[in-house]
Write a structure and sequence with these properties.
There is one protein chain. The protein has a 5-stranded mixed beta barrel. It has 2 helices and 5 strands, in the order E-E-E-H-E-E-H. Helices cover about 25% and strands about 50% of the residues. Strand 1 and strand 2 form a beta hairpin. The chain starts with a strand and ends with a helix. It is α+β, with helices and mostly antiparallel strands and about 80 residues long.
């Protein structure tokens, strides 16, 4: 499990934030709430949840642990 990513915010779009860590850009599916908190770029930290299925690997990122915990309860 990837617990968190910290690095430079290099791209955002609705529902997605890309954080570059050590030369690798991690695409994190995220919420409007998290995007509002990390707006402005620079260095960010996202708490993550890696969801693996037969057809995909999706990384979800959240600005705080409470939002991640809520996500875990929902799924």
């Amino acid at each position: 499990m990837i617990y968190s990513v910290r690095g430079e915010l290099v791209h955002t779009e609705p529902g997605l934030a890309v954080v570059e860590c050590g030369g690798v850009g991690y695409a994190c599916r995220t919420t409007a709430n998290t995007l509002a908190k990390i707006r402005g770029g620079g260095e960010v930290k996202l708490f993550t949840y890696l969801h693996i299925t037969e057809n995909a690997m999706d990384l979800f990122g959240f600005a705080d642990g409470g939002e991640l915990q809520c996500f875990r309860q929902l799924i």
